[in-house]
From TrEMBL:
Native source organism of the sequence: Rhodoblastus sphagnicola
Catalytic activity: (S)-malate + ATP + CoA = (S)-malyl-CoA + ADP + phosphate; succinate + ATP + CoA = succinyl-CoA + ADP + phosphate; GTP + succinate + CoA = succinyl-CoA + GDP + phosphate
Coiled coil regions in record: none
GO MF, one example: malate-CoA ligase activity
Pfam family for this entry, one: ATP-grasp_2
Name of this protein: Succinate--CoA ligase [ADP-forming] subunit beta
HAMAP family in the cross-refs: Succ_CoA_beta
Keyword field contains Lipid biosynthesis: no
Principal EC category: ligase
Length: 398
């Protein structure tokens, strides 16, 4: 689960992490009071969306002006003008895709006098089973690009959970960033605070880009991106309350209500499969035959007719879906239950695109019979290869 920058900063602040003062703004009318509360003389108006690259992003609407999603304001009037221009308009960044994201929240914060920008992040390293830090002098930039073109500028180290952050970790960061004296000391304290926040709040990722040194000689986190481990949210009610469902894929939210493992993708063939491995294989074979899956969907081993119906509805509600492939191996799951679920769903929501069904396993004959006798326009397939070829062919003919 991701949260907004202003929420992440509020969480980090509780651990003592140095962040700027700021006020979230949801309505144009609140801009003036927020700007006055902060006092200036420099304000930054920041779009709050679950995507990075906001500073270099562009708004779709002409009314939002030429500037990007992060704007420096030098007067209260300018703050008010930016809020009016940005709020409720659509920001397109390298991370949002061409459709962009509507900006429904802004964060107005104290402007900093930046001397230098760095990069610092923490994440769970699956290889070492530890929290790893990644630091670089190349702050405020796309870190993937830095990793690609100048990998030597990225330093990383992991923290032993038995000891936590040690003084040498702080020295490593200070050295990597070329910090000495008091700034080196601040870096050591900061790493300890970030590690504590990361572990206590069950984060899976924490990215500060940029971490800056101000002209006043302070280390400060100017941006903050935080993701939490979804499997630990049950014990993080405070963090769970920060969830903003409007930032998430509506289809994924609907799927989570039915315990379906669903991930929306960019292709045009909707897939309904049981078992994550079979779902991956199904996506692979669709690609092998030259098409792209519209989603990953694992209905699970013990799916009921209701869950199958819900899954089918989610797939058909996706306007990108030009064809559907149902691929079920009936082990714990019975093929007749799947068949009934599919038919119930088709009767309820209609079927505007070709549907290929491949059933195998327990009660397969009964399942096939139910589909054959349903009178619905369903293409039956015998194996995975046959199914993939049939759906790709059917989609091409549409
Ligand atoms: P994003 O990464 O989405 O573009 P950032 O929060 O990193 O958004 O902001 C982009 C840039 O704007 C930063 O690299 C920094 O140069 C500048 N910036 C952000 N916040 C402030 C601030 N409080 N004061 C001064 N400059 C800022
Ligand atoms: Mg940033």
């Amino acid at each position: 689960m991701n949260i907004h920058e202003y929420q992440a900063k509020a969480v980090l602040k509780e651990f003592g992490v140095p962040v700027s003062r700021g006020v979230p703004v949801l309505k144009v009318e609140d801009a003036e009071a927020a700007a006055k509360e902060l006092g200036g003389p420099l304000w930054v108006v920041k779009s709050q969306i679950h995507a990075g690259g906001r500073g270099k992003g562009k708004f779709k609407e002409a009314a939002a002006g030429e500037k990007g999603g992060v704007r420096l304001a030098k007067s209260i009037d300018e703050v008010k003008q930016f809020v009016k221009e940005m709020l409720h308009n659509t920001l397109v960044t390298i991370q949002t895709g061409p459709a962009g994201k509507q900006v429904n929240r802004l964060y107005i914060e104290d402007g900093s006098d930046i001397e230098k920008e760095f990069y610092l992040s923490a994440l769970v390293d699956r290889v070492t089973s530890r929290v790893s830090f990644v630091v670089s002098t190349e702050g405020g930039m796309d870190i993937e690009a830095v990793a690609h073109s100048t990998p030597e500028k990225i330093i990383s180290f992991s923290v032993d959970p038995a000891t936590g952050v040690m003084p040498h970790h702080g020295r490593t960061v200070a050295k990597a960033l070329g910090l000495t004296g008091d700034l080196a000391k601040q870096a050591g304290v900061l790493v300890g605070q970030l590690y504590k926040a990361f572990v206590t709040a069950d984060m899976s990722m924490l990215e500060i880009n940029p971490l800056v040194v101000t002209k006043q000689g302070e280390l400060k986190c100017l941006d903050a991106k935080v993701s939490f481990d979804s499997n630990a949210l049950y014990r993080q009610p405070k963090m769970l309350a920060l969830r903003d469902e409007t930032e998430e894929d509506a289809k994924e939210i609907e799927a989570s209500k039915y315990d379906l493992s669903y991930v929306a993708l960019d292709g045009d063939i909707g897939c309904m499969v049981n078992g994550a491995g079979l779902a991956m294989a199904t996506m692979d074979i669709i690609k092998l035959y030259g098409h792209e899956p519209a989603n990953f969907l694992d209905v699970g081993g013990g799916a009921t007719k209701e869950r199958v119906t819900a899954a089918f509805k989610i797939i058909t509600a996706d306007p990108n879906v030009k064809g559907i492939l149902v691929n079920i191996f009936g082990g714990i799951m019975r093929c007749d239950v799947i068949a009934e679920g599919v038919i119930a769903a088709v009767k309820e929501v209609g079927l505007k695109v070709p549907l290929v069904v491949r059933l195998e396993g327990t009660n397969v004959d009964l399942g096939k019979k139910i589909i054959a006798e349903s009178g619905l326009n369903v293409i039956s397939a015998d194996d995975l290869d046959d199914a993939a070829q049939k759906i790709v062919k059917a989609v091409k003919e549409v």
